[in-house]
Amino acid sequence: MTILQNISLKPYNTFGIDVTAKQFATFTSVEELKELISNSKFKTQNSKLILGGGSNILFTKDFDGIILKNELKGIELVHQDEEYFYIKAAAGENWHSFVLHCLNHNYAGIENLSLIPGTVGASPMQNIGAYGIEIKDIFYQLEALHITTQTVQTFNIEDCGFGYRTSVFKTKLKNEFIILNVTYKLRKKAVLNTSYGAIEKELEAMHIAEPNIQSVADAVIRIRSSKLPDPARIGNAGSFFKNPVISKFRRHAIAERFKDLPSFVIDDMHYKIAAGWLIEKCGFKGFRKGDAGCHKDQALVLVNYGHAKGSEIFDLSETIISAVKKEFGIELEREVNIY
Ligand code: EPU
After folding, report:
1. Ligand 1 pocket check: which of 95, 236, 239, 282 to mutate, most ligand atoms within 8 Å of Cβ?
2. Tell me, what's the pLDDT at 1?
3. Mean pLDDT per 10-residue run, the chain (339 residues)?
4. CB of 312 within 8 A of CB of 291?
């Protein structure tokens, strides 16, 4: 177990922001993790952060505390019944590698979540989702270490408080637990979800009439690669803001002005609307100031073209929030965690 001092975080966040952490350590086993959190260097720090793939975080300054990077690895089939395979994956596994593992073994239900950056441990944290599927749809249970008591606790779906891009680990239990592993419940017989318009269109373009999990995954990969920047080339953290939920009255007022407003029914009174569309309408799509920008193909994604400071990206997000508020009376909420 080594605790390093003043380490650059540039390789550890997909925005590629060059800040330092006062202290930094990695753990590859639960024993190593327990040793780390028992250490006085950990206990005496006020600021503590457990890092996965660093794909949903924006550092706006040097981190004046200790960061522990989760590198727990391993994937196993722990159980099966007539309908499902139960697959347990360690929190430090790369998410997309895990999806590929499932595709190779014909475990169905995860295909729509292909190519999402980040780790397995982060997936329940913010209930990741794309193309009509969220983690909560395939989640079985997870194990997490309680930091103060050092006990391992099991969380079933009802304990996780999953919502749109949120869970108890982001809200009322924030910083209390470290997720160790997640068990997913994947189907033996695929039930494909191609209802998200873009998937159907892409399958058509690929001339696939009878899709399977591999072709749906391929379609998702093609769509994502066509409009979401690859963090290995242009720093970003996926969607920077959440899609806002507004009343049907406000939606009606906006739709009167703009016939092309993309919106989805939530319930009798509410609609979710596309934040990317709002941002584009305010003129920010493709906007760039210094090295901080708003992506040219998907306005919901803020990007670092090279040497942007985290604070510059944060300032751009503030400018966007104000503009959308002024134009539409809607307050955008950030999805990315700010440190
Ligand atoms: N749109 C625009 N302009 C833009 C961007 C989008 O008009 O610049 C319109 C699109 O034309 C479409 C609608 O907005 O009609 C929705 O766009 P898209 O399908 O790209 O999805 P999104 O709502 O912008 C969400 C997730 C993504 C996820 C996609 C696909 C959130 C915050 N984001 O984006 O998740 O991949 O749906 O399911 O819910 C992420 O969370 O990091 C992420 C990338």
Report:
1. 239
2. 74
3. 94 98 97 95 91 96 97 98 98 98 98 97 96 96 96 98 96 95 98 92 95 98 96 96 97 95 94 97 98 97 98 98 97 97
4. yes
- Whole-prediction pTM value? 0.96
Report CA(222)–ligand 1 centroid distance (Å). 15
Q: Is 29 noted as a catalytic residue in this protein?
A: no
Q: Where are the domains positioned within the chain?
A: 4-70, 75-187, 235-338
Fold of 75-187: 3.30.465
**Closest C-alpha to ligand 1, atom 2:** 277
Residue nearest to atom 9 of ligand 1 (CA): 277
Which pairing describes strands 63-70 and 48-51: parallel, antiparallel, or unpaired?
A: parallel
Cα 265 to Cα 142, 199, 244, 262: the distances in Å are 31, 19, 12, 10
Tokens 């793939």 sit on residue: 53
CATH class entry, domain 4-70:
alpha beta
Q: Which residues line ligand 1 (CB under 6 A)?
A: 130-131, 198, 238-239, 242-243, 262, 274, 276-277, 280, 285, 298-300, 335
pLDDT at position 197: 78
> Are the beta carbons of 87 and 182 closer than 8 angstroms?
no
What CATH number does the domain located at 235-338 have?
3.90.78.10
How far apart are alpha carbons 249 and 272 in whole angstroms? 13
The angle formed by the CA atoms of residues 236, 335 and 176, to the nearest 5 degrees, is: 110
